[in-house]
Write a structure and sequence with these properties.
The structure holds two protein chains of two kinds.
Chain A (H helix, E strand, L loop, with lengths): L3 E4 L2 E4 L5 E7 L5 E8 L3 E10 L2 E4 L6 E3 L9 E3 L8 E8 L3 H4 L3 E2 L3 E5 L1
Parallel strand pairs in A: 2-11
Antiparallel strand pairs in A: 1-3, 3-8, 4-5, 4-9, 5-6, 7-8, 9-10, 9-11
Chain B lengths: L3 E3 L4 E4 L4 E7 L6 E7 L6 E6 L3 E5 L2 E6 L4 E6 L8 E8 L5 E3 L3 E6 L1
Parallel strand pairs in B: 2-11
Antiparallel strand pairs in B: 1-3, 3-8, 4-5, 4-9, 6-7, 7-8, 9-10, 9-11
């Protein structure tokens, strides 16, 4: 089982460039989300989706866009990269409401550096 | 002030020791609580989930929740070098959003 697959694993951008982080899951999970992880800050929720066509903002959504056209895919777009977006990005999915099991399945992360 | 506070460590213990990891929180609306383990350069994985105050045991791991004190703990008995990782507490109000602590780095020395 592939689980949650993120690409690319590493990326270096210049300020102002745009890019898309890809996330795909093969577990037929309705819930998908994007987090960023920074030293001393823990994981912070950027955007999430409870199903195809439905997305909502998390704690730190500014500068990021998402869409959910299929159950499997949940790409994260950086519109105009800034050095403050240097971080490790994690995509995560869940089969049920987080209140039921608390279980998020995470990808291995995408390390982004913005110069 | 952060909603969830967690000492970042690192916490260094000898093999076989009992480890205590803790988080405090300020939002009394949090209903469910989790501990995730994250190995270096990997994504976090769920270790323990609890929905109420009290203790929950799973093998060498015990999760404890005290809602009156807004305090949760994870105890690891007979710690092993393979337990060396970052431990993240997490908690939620509704089913769609989790708030994570900053994580505690644990090192178990053989």
């Amino acid at each position: 089982n592939a689980g949650v697959t993120q690409t690319p694993k590493f990326q270096v951008l210049k300020t102002g460039q745009s890019m898309t982080l890809q996330c795909a899951q093969d577990m037929n999970h309705e819930y998908m989300s994007w987090y960023r992880q920074d030293p001393g800050m823990g994981l912070r929720l950027i955007h999430y989706s409870v199903g195809a066509g439905i997305t909502d903002q998390g704690e730190v959504p500014n500068g990021y866009n998402v869409s959910r056209s299929t159950t499997e895919d949940f790409p994260l777009r950086l519109l105009s990269a800034a050095p403050s977006q240097t971080s490790v990005y994690f995509c995560a999915s869940s089969k049920t409401s987080l209140a039921t099991t608390g279980e998020l399945f995470f990808g291995e992360g995408s390390r982004l550096t913005v110069l | 002030q952060k909603e969830v506070e967690q000492d970042p460590g690192p916490l260094s213990v000898p093999e076989g020791a009992i480890v205590s990891l803790n988080c405090t929180y300020s939002n009394s609306a949090f209903q469910y609580f989790m501990w995730y383990r994250q190995y270096s350069r990997k994504g976090p994985e769920l270790l323990m989930y609890t929905y109420s105050s009290g203790n929950k045991e799973d093998g060498r791991f015990t999760a404890q929740v005290d809602k009156s004190s807004k305090y949760i703990s994870l105890f690891i008995r007979d710690s092993q070098p393979s337990d060396s990782a970052t431990y993240l507490c997490a908690m939620g109000v509704s089913g769609n959003k989790l708030v994570f602590g900053a994580g505690t780095i644990l090192r178990v020395k053989s």
